[in-house]
Amino acid sequence: QVQLVESGGGLVQAGDSLRLSCATSGRTFSRYAMGWFRQAPGLEREFVASITWGFGTTNYANSVVGRFTISRDNAKNTVYLQMNKLKPEDTAVYYCAAQITRGSSYTYWGQGTQVTVSS
């Protein structure tokens, strides 16, 4: 069984920073990429950022470009999301997920961590 566990969420003020972590444990599995998604109340879940596990190629939603940075530590099976210059509209539950093969849907998901940004 594969487990993804997010941590690092919290309540911050606009302009502050947070660093989310997503640790993978359980059954060893190969993956093409890891991603971060978020879901605000009443809205659909949306893509935030992704990183390929091999080359480390990154991709970001337009709304977070220049503010968020995704990174990974292959040895620790952990992916990070550094969030700077946070805005109230960044408030959401943030989820990490694992994509097994290129172009496939994300197969494994974490339980989410709440990020709340006050104005």
- What is the overall pLDDT average? 95
Q: How far from one another are the termini?
A: 40 Å
Report strand %. Answer: over 45%
Largest sheet: 7 strands, mixed
Low-pLDDT stretches are: none
Rg for CA atoms = 14 Å
Give me the strand/helix succession. EEEEEEEEEEE
Describe the protein's architecture and organization.
- The structure is a single chain.
- The chain has 119 residues and is mainly β.
- It contains no helices and eleven strands.
- Strands 2, 4, 5, 6, 9, 10 and 11 form a seven-stranded mixed β-sheet that branches. A four-stranded antiparallel β-sheet has the order 1-3-8-7, with no helix packed on it.
- β4 (33-39) and β5 form a beta hairpin.
- The protein is globular and about 40 Å long.
- It starts with a strand and ends with a strand.
- The mean pLDDT is 95.
Compile the SSE list and pairings.
Blueprint: E1 2-7, E2 10-13, E3 18-26, E4 33-39, E5 46-52, E6 58-60, E7 68-73, E8 78-83, E9 92-99, E10 106-109, E11 113-118
Parallel strand pairs: 2-11
Antiparallel strand pairs: 1-3, 3-8, 4-5, 4-9, 5-6, 7-8, 9-10, 9-11
What structural keywords apply?
119 residues; 4-stranded antiparallel sheet; 11 strands; 0% helix
